[in-house]
Amino acid sequence: MSKKTMVVLLTLALVAGVLSACGKGSESSNAASSTGSQDLIVANTADVSTLDSNLATSAEDLNVINKLVEGLYRQSETGVELAAASDVKISDDKKTYTFTIRDEKWSDGTPVTAHDFEYAWKRLANPDTKAEYSYMLLVAGVKNAENVLYNGAALDTLGVKATDDRTLVVQLDRVVPYFDSLIAGTYFAPINEKFATAQGDQYGLSKDHVLANGPFVVSDWTVGGDSVVLSKNTQYWDQSNIKLNTLTYKTVKDSQSGILAYQSQQLDYVEINGEEGAAYKDSKDYHTHLARMLYYFQPNLKVKQLNNVNLRLALALAYDKNSIVDNILKDGSIPANFLIVDTLASGVAGKTFRDAAQTTYLEPDKAKAVEYFNKAKTELKQNKFTFELLYDDDDTTKQIAQFYQSEIQNTLPGITINLKAQPKKNRVALAGKGDFQIIITRWGADYDDPSTYFDLFTKRSGYNFGHWVNPQYDKLVNGASQQWIASPEKRLDAYIKAEKVLLDDAAIFPIYQDGRSYLLNSRVSVKFSPEGSALWRTATISNK
């Protein structure tokens, strides 16, 4: 046994012992319960680097920003609901949205106006801003976004206009059924132009260089610091329903540190990995939930052998996804025999996509995998193959890569899988350049509509790292976003057919839908959004 393994096991034993003591006749004693107040401390996996809603890209930054600023809509436990907008009128052709901005104020007491939204959206679109997520305006269908973003058109031609302080008119190039879900995202939140301009390049880089119109304000934060303290925003339109006094994000970079911080009363909420979570499975503090995140293998079809569909099918069927979920992850994840994750909407009211599709694909079948492999060897006139698998260098992904390597080499003798671990940043860069043979990658739903996944694999997609091209697939996906956009049932039918085309051709090999295991102080009550994010504005702390 390695020294590292011994340390992990000793840590788990200590944690389990402490938990056992807490579970026998006493409440767990963590940060919130020890203070007897409405002050909550939650874990963030990296230091916050910016609070600029146009420029943030990391989940850690966005975790904080979406508590400070709030767009026309906000997330709720059932989907999205109006927030900074008190009303919206949608034209008959569903291409013009007229929002009435709520009578609310920024944290400095100045009014939030429709002009703040117009400024923020145009700042996002401005090439000088260098916002990585400016393309979301294109995804949202905002009129003339493509010309503004990529063809040098004037910002004033973007389809967003404040006609007065309380009225914001948004025009779309096409019908976008998921428009409300999409613009609930942080990138579409308002920015006070006068304030932001006065801060210059320091905007969003300290507690004094950002304004809030959301449920919280920043009361303490320094770039590079390991915590961000948020306080209740007394100017917030819904402040009467905010029970927390403070919400503190504390940086915890690994699961073991998080567990120890939780047990030493420094945290009230922390996500942990499945192995360590096993010690907590009988605790009232332990919970799991599904995230709208799909992990999958993606073969690069520029590699001659991987352009053979029978070889891809063999590689897709020859490994046991249940073992990955049950023996490696142990965190509520489920095997993925699909492209569109569970709980994602279908575009048809009252139906999730999985409920509507009622079909799964690429379920593990080692006998069939061998049959496909034999066909591939005949077609390629080759008996031995060597492929390199690229993956992130974290411990969990490493275990999955090693398991896949073992499964393939044992099930399909003649195939050798070499492993190449890289830091996530490097892995993403190599994927973007197409410099890989097979890769472990992932995609999380940016909004509640199947297009967030289907658009990835079209011929024009910048995320189609595997260079898979299928005219039938493109026709179905393009049809769903164009001629069938206003017909939910036809659009859904096209997407169901597109999923079948993609997975029957083994364009990707789905692995699992991500589950999250976490510890939550049993005194804390909080609602979660459909994709599993804690809605901390709803949190309350019992002092019993």
Percentage of residues assigned to helices: 25-40%
The Rg value, from CA coordinates, equals 25 Å
User: What is the CATH class of the domain at 290-515?
Assistant: Alpha Beta
What is the makeup of the main sheet? 7 strands, mixed
Shape call: globular
Distance between the termini: 44 Å
Low-confidence stretches: 1-29
Question: CATH superfamily name of the domain at 290-515?
Answer: Dipeptide-binding Protein, Domain 3
By CATH, the architecture of the domain at 290-515 is named Roll
Q: Number of helix segments?
A: 19
Pfam families: SBP_bac_5
Keywords: Signal, Transport
Domain Solute-binding protein family: 83-463
Family: Belongs to the bacterial solute-binding protein 5 family.
Would you give an account of this structure?
The structure is a single chain. By secondary structure, this protein is of the alpha+beta class. Among the domains are: 59-206, Dipeptide-binding Protein, Domain 1 (Dipeptide-binding Protein, domain 1); 290-515, Roll (Dipeptide-binding Protein, domain 3). 33% of the residues lie in helices and 22% in strands. The protein is built from 19 helices and 19 strands. It has helices at 3-23, 31-35, 59-68, 114-125, 136-139, 145-150, 179-183, 193-199, 255-263, 274-277, 309-317, 321-329, 353-357, 366-380, 395-411, 424-433, 451-454, 471-481, 488-504; strands at residues 39-44, 73-75, 80-82, 85-90, 96-101, 160-164, 167-171, 216-220, 227-232, 246-251, 269-272, 286-299, 334-335, 385-392, 415-422, 438-444, 509-520, 524-528, 534-541. The strands form 5 sheets. Strands 11, 12, 13, 14, 15, 16 and 17 form a 7-stranded mixed β-sheet that branches. α15 (395-411) links the parallel β14 (385-392) and β15 (415-422). α1 (3-23) runs parallel beside α9 and α11 (309-317) runs antiparallel to α14 (366-380). The longest helix has 21 residues, at 3-23. The radius of gyration is 25 Å and the shape is globular. Mean pLDDT is 91; it is low at 1-29.
